[in-house]
Write a structure and sequence with these properties.
Blueprint lengths: L2 H16 L3 E6 L4 H16 L3 E6 L6 H12 L6 E3 L3 H8 L7 H6 L2 H4 L2 H6 L1 E2 L2 E2 L1 E3 L1 E4 L2 E4 L1 H7 L7 H13 L3 E3 L5 H26 L3 H4 L2 H13 L12 H9 L3 E5 L3 H8 L9 E4 L7 E4 L2 E4 L5 H15 L1 H11 L2 E2 L11 H15 L3 E3 L9 H16 L5 H12 L4
Parallel strand pairs: 1-2, 1-3, 9-10, 12-15
Antiparallel strand pairs: 3-13, 4-5, 6-13, 7-12, 7-14, 8-10, 8-11
Helix pairs in contact: 2-14, 2-16, 10-12, 10-18, 12-19, 18-19
The protein binds beta-D-glucopyranose (BGC).
């Protein structure tokens, strides 16, 4: 190395370490695929000279993480960033605990790089208070093709075909549907069935606008019937099971199918299972033209230390960079939220997801996930989750009783 180059490198290192801060990030990405994705974030921050402090809280689709976060914020000890999404972003911002990252967003033209439905959710009173990471699609059905071939079951595209396939798998002694009986997973399955049976307009009116007539109407009755018809195809071990353990059952060929968002794809890939070979992704029955979305995002908390504030801005900028959007989403199973990204490194599931996202946005079939924090307040979400889960787990509750409870749950005040 020439002397001038050496001096330059030294100066760069010094400059970086002068503003090096600590970045603590709360998340619940602890399963195989999720951890690989989180690792890419850590690596990109360390490359900028910052110290990464991992604040991972496993479990229950993030419910435990949010509980821990609340107590940290109340005691005046907030992390730099936390995995918060949907309407909860506004709720946290209105508490006055989040900070504006407008300077980064303006300098990097986020308004032009993000779909409007996303950028609006990242802002509070016009200021960006969060950075989006990805777009997950919820309404997927994951299949093990070897199990289908072995048993003669046919991949389904509508509900009749689905129940035919489930019956064939069951008769062959295979668990037809791998399910994790936790309330957020029950609701994740339920919203997919609601879309598949009732269609996009019904989903929006019932589950997003919480219209009591739809929540207690004939279509909802049909949805509840189809939802409950799936239960006999799950196994006795389902109650309490984590979603990634259900995915592992499909990976190992113990089960034929799983309904789950495409974070499940991250698990297949982390286990070395290849798309089209080890697993197949197909839109859940009746939902091919629609898209239930989850956008993961990091809310930025107010910090006192200037070096940590600088690190927080670097995090926001890194998350939106094309390099990070690619590597993170390849591991996570989702697609980039940044528009105009090349998709050539992504598999067919992701390519289909990207096309369907755009098409669904044009046909009013782009719908926020209720079960995964995107559609309603966390209080309403929690109450609906409980009502749906009680119906799933009860042998006696009628659809009429379930509808009464769901209509009541939708009226929950935050
Ligand atoms: C999140 C995903 C996460 C999944 C399972 C979803 O609500 O949006 O990022 O992988 O839960 O933990």
């Amino acid at each position: 190395m020439q002397l001038t180059t050496f001096v330059l490198v030294c100066l760069q290192v010094l400059a970086a370490s002068a503003r090096a801060g600590e970045i603590e990030v709360l998340h619940w990405w602890t399963s195989g695929g999720e951890a690989r994705a989180a690792q890419s974030l850590k690596a990109s921050m360390q490359a900028k000279g910052h110290t990464w402090k991992d604040f991972a809280v496993a479990g229950s689709g993030g419910d435990s993480a949010i509980t821990v976060l609340k107590s940290r914020v109340v005691s005046g000890n907030a992390p730099a960033a936390a995995q918060i999404k949907g309407p909860s972003l506004q709720a946290w911002a209105s508490e006055g605990v989040l900070t504006s990252i407008n300077d980064v967003a303006k300098a990097e033209h986020w308004d032009a790089l993000l779909p409007k439905v996303v950028s609006e959710q990242m802002k509070y009173k016009g200021d960006y208070i969060a950075v989006p990471v990805n777009v997950h699609r919820v309404n997927w059905l994951w299949l093990n093709p070897a199990v289908f071939a072995r048993t003669g079951a046919k991949p389904p595209s509508n509900w009749d075909e689905f129940f035919d396939a489930a019956e064939t798998l069951k008769e062959a002694g295979v668990i037809a549907v791998a399910h994790g009986g936790q309330s957020w997973q029950d609701l994740t399955l339920f919203e997919t069935v609601a879309l598949g049976v009732g269609g996009a307009e019904f989903y929006r009116k019932a589950l997003v606008q919480l219209d009591p007539a739809e929540l207690g109407g004939v279509t909802m009755e049909k949805v509840l019937g189809t939802f409950k018809r799936i239960k006999p195809y799950t196994d006795r071990g389902a109650p309490g099971r984590d979603w990634n353990l259900a995915t592992a059952m499909v990976i190992k060929g113990e089960a034929g199918m799983q309904f789950m968002g495409d974070w499940a794809k991250g698990e297949f890939l982390a286990a070395g299972s290849l798309p089209g070979k080890g697993f197949i992704c197909t839109p859940a029955p009746g939902t091919a033209k629609a898209f239930i979305y989850v956008v993961d995002s990091f809310a930025m908390f107010k910090l006192k230390n200037p070096a940590n504030q600088a690190a927080q801005k670097d995090l926001a900028s890194a998350v939106m960079s094309p390099e990070f959007q690619q590597v993170f989403n390849l591991n996570k199973g989702s697609i980039p939220v940044r528009m105009g990204m090349k998709m050539d490194k992504f598999d067919d599931c992701a390519k289909a997801s990207a096309l369907d996202f755009t098409a669904a946005a044009k046909s009013a079939a782009l719908l926020p996930s209720v079960a995964n924090g995107m559609a309603v307040s966390s209080a309403v979400e929690g109450a609906i989750k409980e009502a749906v889960s009680q119906f799933w787990n009860s042998d006696k509750m009628t659809p009429a009783e379930a509808m009464k409870r769901i209509v009541g749950a939708a009226k929950t005040r935050p």
